Amino acid sequence: MPVISAINLSIGYKNSPIVSDINLQLNTGRIICLLGANGAGKTTLMKTLLGRIRPVSGNITYTGTNINEMSAAIDHPSFFPYLSGRENVEVVSAFWGLDVDPETALDGVGINRAAHGRKAKDYSTGMKERLELCLALVPHPRFLFLDEPQNGLDPDGITSLSETLRSYRDKGNCVVISTHLLHEIQGVPDECIVIRHGRAAQFTDLTGVNLADLYQGR
Ligand SMILES: Nc1ncnc2c1ncn2[C@@H]1O[C@H](COP(=O)(O)OP(=O)(O)OP(=O)(O)O)[C@@H](O)[C@H]1O
């Protein structure tokens, strides 16, 4: 089974660790939620696992998978603002060498038809989030990393995002999602990684666990 493992990993910038001694496993068929205060290191961890930042020390191993099977919506905005939603999907599909129908892809994340031809910069905050998710899904990644994808979504958008993530997981993929919206994400993840005080702890069984308690270290 494809898996990404971090072994005694320390992450940070310019050789200065922000989170140390990280040992964790990202397995397919799981939704894994990253929790931590502002500046805890969630985005840095995602970027390091994606190979975009060099670890300060330690190792990451990719078993049965590689960087080409990963996709992310991390740097916001991750779309081309002066292109329409439709054109964004076309460009990203061309980059991956895939033949994706833009209308189907945009419909799939709930962007209404009237908006498909409008410049992405003129989308509402929630529509921009939906577009970022749409583009991250274009290559059908085995590992999907989403940095605070719930931000700006209306209640229907949050519900449909949760459904999208579950169905994506059920197809045998791994979703890693960071969020501060604990109430909204409750019940969605199978696992959780909590970053506090420069350390990361992975909880692989969330049965009966309240994420707010986990976040607070209770
Ligand atoms: N390019 C960079 N160079 C140096 N330090 C950085 C860089 N990017 C982030 N940092 C610092 O690394 C720390 C962790 O930032 P990171 O963005 O990973 O946190 P986060 O948990 O994702 O926070 P948030 O919830 O606010 O998004 C912060 O102190 C931040 O200032």
TrEMBL record:
Keywords: ATP-binding, Nucleotide-binding, Transport. InterPro entries: AAA+_ATPase, ABC_transporter-like_ATP-bd, P-loop_NTPase. Pfam families: ABC_tran. GO terms for molecular function: ATP binding; ATP hydrolysis activity. The keyword Nucleotide-binding applies. Residues 4-216 form the ABC transporter domain. The keyword Calcium does not apply. It comes from the Bacteria. Signal peptide: none annotated. Belongs to the ABC transporter superfamily. This is ABC transporter. It comes from Bifidobacterium callitrichidarum.
